Each structure stands twice: as C-alpha cells, then as structure tokens.
Amino acid sequence: MPAALSHDATTGTWLLTTPSTSYALRVDGQGVPRHVHWGGPLTLADVASLPPAGAGPRSSFDGRPATSEELTVDGADRYGPPALRVRFADGTRALTWQADGHEQPAPGTLLLHFRDPHYPLRTTLGYRVHPDTDVIERWTELTHTGIASDPDDTPGDDILALRADSATLSLPPREDYRLGHAVGQWAAETQLRRTSLPYGETVLTSRTGTTSHRAQPWTILDAGDATEEHGQVWSAALAWSGSWQITLQRAPDNQLSLNLGAGHDAVTVTLRPGETHTTPPVLLLHVAEGGFGALSRAWHRHLRAQVLPHPQETRPVLYNSWEATGFGVTLDNQRQLASLAAGLGVELFVMDDGWFGARRDDHAGLGDWTPYPGAFPDGLRPLADEVHRLGMAFGLWVEPEMVNPDSDLYRAHPDWVLHFPHRPRTELRHQLVLNFARPDVAAWAFDRLTRLVADNDVDYLKWDMNRPFSEAGWPDEPSGRGDRLWFDHVRGYHTLVDRLRAAHPRLRIEACSGGGGRVDPAVLARTDQVWISDNTDAADRLVIQHGYAQLYPVRTMAAWVTDVPNQQTGRSIPLRFRFHSAMSGVLGIGGDLTRWRPQELKEAEQLVAEYKTVRHLVQHGELFRLRPPGDLQSLTAVQYLAPDAAEAAVFAWLPQPRFGLAPAPLRLAGLPRDAHYRDLRSGRVHSGAALRERGLDLDLPHEDWASTVVHLVRI
Ligand code: GLA
Q1: What does DSSP say about strands 706-714 and 676-679: parallel, antiparallel, or unpaired?
Q2: Looking at the annotation, which residues are catalytic?
Q3: Final residue of a domain: which of 289, 307, 325?
Q4: Residue of the nearest CA to atom 12 in ligand 1?
C-alpha cells in the first residue's frame, strides 16, 4: 500500500492516497493551493504531470475559473462564489495567498500553511486520510496573527470573515453532472432528489441554527450516468449540527466546484488578535465503480468504523410512550405500558415528554428538569426500578436546550435565551432557545442532566431539540460578538453531550429534533441512534428511511410501530406491514399497548422475536437497495448481507398489488455465486447465482399491504 501522503517537491504537488482513491493538489509557483485531482487511483508521477484544475487558456473577460483553488478566496479576478471572504480592519477585502510551509503532525494528516503578505492572517488547509477508508477529511483554520495584547483592544483590529467554509471541492470535468441531495420538512424528512445540476450557482442551506428538516448537509454527484449498481460517484458531507451552506457552481464549460461550510449567508466570524477559528470537517468520498449502492455502503462502513461511539453494539428493541400517553404520563400508566412492552420482548423503555416541571401540555415546564409531583410523587425512582425489574433499560426524554417562558428557569434567567434587545422573542411551540454558547448555561445544563442520570439510574436519554433559532442574539456577550453563538451554541451542545457521556460511560443517547431536524456526521459521532421523523406511517417511512440511509448507517435509524389510524397521516396499515417497515431499521414500538387486542399483542411478540433473529444483519450488515420506494403499486425491497455473506435478510413491501399479480422474482445482490442459501421460511435452497440471476420468489400474500421478511442462511 503506498504512503498515505506523498509529496513531489519539484512541482509542489501533494498526493493523498486512500485504499482506492487519490486526491491531489499543488502549491504553485505563486504560492496558490491549486486543485489537481479527486477520483480513481493515480501515482505521484501521474498527478505531478497533470495540470491543475481550471488550467488552460482563459480570456481576460472571464477571470479566474472557480474550480482552480483548494479554497476559493475572494478578490482579484475571481468572480465565483468565495469559500473564504475576509475583510481586514482597513476595509481591504481581497486575500492573497503566500505559502508558509507545511506540517504532518500525525500519520495521514497534512497541514498547509499560508499567510497574507500584508495582513495578519494565517490560513491553514487541513487534510486527513485513514488507512482503512476512502473518506478524506478536510477543514480550514484561520488565525489572526496580530499580537493579542489587551483583551479590551479596539475592535478595529479585528478580521472579519464574511464566509469561512471548510473546503472547496472540484470534480473532474464531465459532460454532464447530476446532483443527489435530500429535501424535507417536519414529518417528511430526507426525501432523496436527483436532478441534473443547473448551470450557475445552486445553494443548499439551513438557516435554522440546526442541521434542519429542510435539507441535509451532503451531496452526491455523478456525471448523470451512475445507477444503484454501476458508475462513478463523488460525495461530500459536512460534520456540523448548526446552520450550513453548500454552494455548487457549474460553469458553462462544465467545470464544477462546491464550497461547503458552517453558517448560512448572514453568519460571520470575527477574529481578534491571537484567535483561531477552526471550521468543522468536510468528509469526502469517491467510489470509482458500483454506483449509489456502493457509495452508501462505503459511507456506512466509514461512519461505523470511525464515527459512531459504539458501532459494535446491537441496538435494543425500544418502547416509547409519546404516541400512547402524550403529555399525560403518570407512574401508573407508564408502569402499565412497561409491563406490556416487556411482555413483547422490548429491551429499553423510554418515557417521553411530560414527566417534569409543570408540563401538562407544550405551554409550560421546559427547563424545570424535576419530576412533576402530581404524576411522580416519589420522583422517577419507582418507575426506573420497575422498568429495571422487568428486565429493560430505562430511558427518559429531555430537551435541554429549550425553555418555556412559563417555567421557573425562565423566570429566574430571562437573559439566558437567544434574543435581541429591542425585538419580541418569537415563540415556536411556546418555547425559546437557551443560549448554549454561554458558559453559565452550559454549566447549569450539565449539572441538571448529570444529576438526573445518576439519581434515577437512567440508561438512555432521548435528546430533543424542537425548534429553530429566531432572534439569534446575545446582547451581553462580553466581547460584543454575539454572532459567535451560531458556532458556539452548536459547540456547546456537542461538548455537553461529550461531557455527559464521559461522566456516564453506560449512558446511551438518541438524537431527535422534532424528528430528523438535527442529524449529520457530528451528531452521529456522539449519539447512538436517531429519531429520524415524527412521521410513523409505515409507507411514508420507507421513503424517509431510503433518503436517510443514503449516507447514514441503518444501525442508527430508529423506527417505531405505532397505532392506526396513523397520527400524522390518518392512514391505517396492517400491523405486520408496520412491523416489517420498522424492522428494517432499529425496531421500536410507540403504540398504546393498553388498547392492543390480545391477538395483536401476540402477533407483535412474534414479530419482535423474528426481528431479533435478523437484527444483526439489519444493524451490522451491508445494505443493498433492491427496489427504491416508488408509488404504492410498486414493490420496495432492501437486502442486508452479513459481512462474511453467511446470511442475508430481505425485506419486501407491496402496498397495493396491481391486477392481483405477484411481483417478478426479486434479484438479490452481493451473494457469492457458488454459495448455497436456505430460505428459512420455505426451507428451499438456492444458489447465490440463481438468487442473483433468476431471483427469489417472494410468495407475498394476495392482499393489500403485503410484506415479507426472508432470512437466508448459507449452508
Ligand atoms: C418531538 C419529538 C417527538 C416527541 C415530542 C415530545 O416532536 O420528535 O418524538 O418526543 O417532541 O414533545
């Protein structure tokens, strides 16, 4: 295996090598970092002789191409979208590159330093490659190298970054480009869209202060010719849980570049002398062959191996009280649900919203994290003990970053929320956002949560975040730079989760934000699973899960079986289909079990038991999307294959069969051709080749909402 980092000093070219891709850049004779290559494997000699991206004749009418720099800066003859746009104290806005050496502080890590020839700004481009993944990390550090003398120094010396992206990426020129991305809204998150990339600038963004329901901070790009199984694909994801922006630029000559970074259009960074701003990392991934399916599997492998806190753990079957008891939780109704859930084989019981403060609906109580005495006169301990006695872990819902104005916390600390001095405080869901950039607020939250966990033997927190920012101000920020909170609130959230985990190593955390409003690689780095949508309709969920799993491992994708008619869509889908939909992720149950008929409880118990026989494949196997979700008349199917191909689980759903016809045999993927597999349902044995070429008979029942799970074991 060639060295991860190699350098050709004659041309100034750097080559980053991963197991199956290469990335190259060059610091040219003028000291400008130029992009050279991102794609299939090339040698140092290959890339040293390649021209940089965007090279070639250009007219003086057009200016410099946007694809040329590793971080597109503002100024001179550049007219594309800048990834780094600074304004110095005297009003000068253009940045000039001057190479200032490099460092390799750790194996696989490269830091390229640049300084401005006149102003006190150092720009560092960071790169990291790992030996066992094709994912490359990139980030940028900006340092004000002026002397940090008096902290009350005049703000006139500050350097203002109007845009401070993590990286610019360039793709090799192709005749066409297609953009894959996820769009959404509350209860309809992560819907995958693939569109031909328009010429001009395309902006994907979140302005909410969170990753957002509306868009995901990742892109999947191909030349318009990739399929689920074939073709070359490039992808990038920003590991950031706040506002963000991805700007793609497709030039008329089909040069494509993209800038990715934290903060939306209005968010700036002010650097005082001596300060450094480090951007969040962008993760880059290219697959040379194998299409969108291979790309997803490579993302999943990377996130499992390098990012998830406990990738080897199998997530338990969960029960959550939200749809059953809403805000009306009591010791009695939770005990009753816990007992029924334990009878079904549930392993983790989570009491959702409503257990604290004066929380009887969404108007009051957020911020007061002590049990509501009317429902829990002796605190939470009796319930926690009962849940443990039933053999389940005990989980609790919290929303630490939020406060209702009608709460003791807000009455004591009205200045702790995001606000502007002369503006009303806009409430959404009757709540305001606590400013987690403030050290006193972060300290309060840690104290509350750590005591809650320790005092009640809490094994699991569902950490919610139910509204976006508004009036995002911090009027009494000591240095007058309230805008910091766009970054520092997010860092405060990350740090708090990290501290809690360190203080309680057995604690597991579910990420939630009104469903899937805050999920990204930085959230996955510090949580164990994600509540990906408040929409629990089993058919809609297949669409949402399809988009989620383009990047994120199914091992993190929580899914519940809830009651019918569904609370979000009003649709009634049979229990079995609901289970099969949720069983293709991390199974949970969220219905009111006290209203389930004995027959339903029995069927549920069997399905939970069945899930336990295949969940090692769902959670730790490789995902093959055999049929994407389409209209209700079409078959949807996924396959999970054990890493050693010894077993596979196939899930198939057909909501409304047409003409009473059975679907064609389903062709499976990834199985060794000469292996033989027994279908544990029917006992039939098939060769891998037959399953791939002819396909598996699904034997779906002739009815609406038909679904099946097939477990294949190699013999
Ligand atoms: C959000 C979550 C739900 C539930 C409620 C409680 O909407 O997504 O699952 O926890 O909050 O208020």
Answers
A1: antiparallel
A2: 464, 534
A3: 307
A4: 353
